[in-house]
Write a structure and sequence with these properties.
Radius of gyration: 17 Å
EC number: 5.2.1.8
Largest sheet: 8 strands, antiparallel, barrel
Oligomer: single chain
Strand content: 25-35%
Keywords: Isomerase, Rotamase, Signal
Enzyme class: isomerase
Number of helices: 5
Helix content: 10-25%
GO molecular function: isomerase activity
Pfam family, one: Pro_isomerase
Length: about 260
């Protein structure tokens, strides 16, 4: 039985009105337990649970020692290779740390919305815990929610006004091409100005500009968008949970 999720909402504003398209879930059990990870392959021997007081210092130091930037997300549909941005260092370090510890090997893509996004990182069957913390936001105007963007989920604004990211829940953007008029509306809504290149990207490959400035984009898919599409087409039940779970394993790749 799945735990009742704590919800955070992804909103995509239409030009005339806004509608809620996606609700992300974070495991609601306290994550202050356990120090266990297999000492195999490139995994770290332990995963020390982090707290809001230790997260920045630990991730800053970890980032210095682990410059990894390419990860492979493996599923029964195939592999998705992602590149992590070096100028979102806390998010990159956090993702690398969880991947190397084996934490993400106990996760799954647990919510999918065809044409919008697939979300992973969590699982009701996980035994490892990573601590009760959030990651300070690292939003950067040059990183948009284009098709293939990798970003972190978060709790909604009412309980998280600083837009800090989830400790482990991530998503990959799908989305469709948009018109320039739609993009200008998003610029006004979010008080941002897209570059000509960003406008062209949204007009040609698509994405979800309604999420820009709201969530931290910290990487992008470089291979395997066809796999992401297959995952997005999984049959779903209530809450957009796949009726058949889609487990994932995440490993860091050689640069």
């Amino acid at each position: 039985m799945r735990k009742k999720p704590l919800t955070l909402q992804f909103a995509r504003a239409a030009i005339a009105a806004s509608c809620i398209l996606f609700a992300a879930a974070c495991n609601q059990t306290s994550q202050d337990e356990t120090d266990a990870a297999a000492e195999t392959g490139t995994t770290e021997p332990t995963l020390e649970p982090l707290t809001s007081e230790t997260v920045v210092d630990v991730l800053t130091e970890y980032e210095r020692q682990h410059p990894d930037s390419i990860a492979v997300i493996s599923t029964r549909h195939g592999d998705i290779k992602v590149r992590l941005y070096k100028d979102t260092p806390l998010h990159r370090a956090n993702f690398v740390r969880l991947a190397k510890s084996g934490f993400y090997d106990q996760g799954e893509f647990y919510r999918v919305v065809k044409g919008f996004a697939i979300q992973g990182g969590d699982s009701d069957n996980r035994e490892m815990k990573n601590g009760a913390y959030k990651i300070p936001q690292e939003t950067d105007p040059k990183y948009i929610h284009k098709r293939g963007a990798l970003a972190m989920a978060r709790y909604g604004d009412e309980r998280n006004p600083e837009k800090e990211s989830s400790s482990h829940n991530f998503y990959i953007v799908l989305g469709e091409p948009l018109t320039e008029a739609e993009l200008r509306a998003y610029e006004a809504q979010h008080n941002i100005k897209y570059t000509p290149a960003q406008i062209e990207t949204y007009k040609t490959i698509g994405g979800e500009p309604g999420l820009d400035t709201e969530y931290t984009v910290f990487g992008e898919v470089i291979e395997g968008m066809d796999v992401a599409e297959k995952i997005s087409q999984e049959p779903v039940g209530s809450g957009k949970w796949p009726t058949e779970i889609v487990p994932h394993k995440i490993k860091m790749a050689k640069q």
